[in-house]
Amino acid sequence: MEYLQVNDHCWHILLNINANEKRSEAKWQPIADKLQSLGIRYELHRLTKPCDGIFTARELCEKGIRHLVAAGGDGTINEVVNGIFTSSVNTREVFLAVLPMGRGNDWIRTHRYPQNPDETIDVWLKGQFMQHDIGLVTSTTSGRQQESRYFINIAGFGFDADVIYDVTNRPPHFLGFNVYELSLIRTLLSHKPKSIRVSAVDGFTFNGEVFMVIAAICQYNGGGIREAKYAVPDDGLLDLIILPKMSILQVLAQLKNMHTGNHIDKIKRIRMTQTTAVQISSKQPFRAETEGELLAVGDYHVRLIPKALNVLTNIG
Question: How many CB atoms lie within 10 A of CB 248?
Answer without folding.
Answer: 11
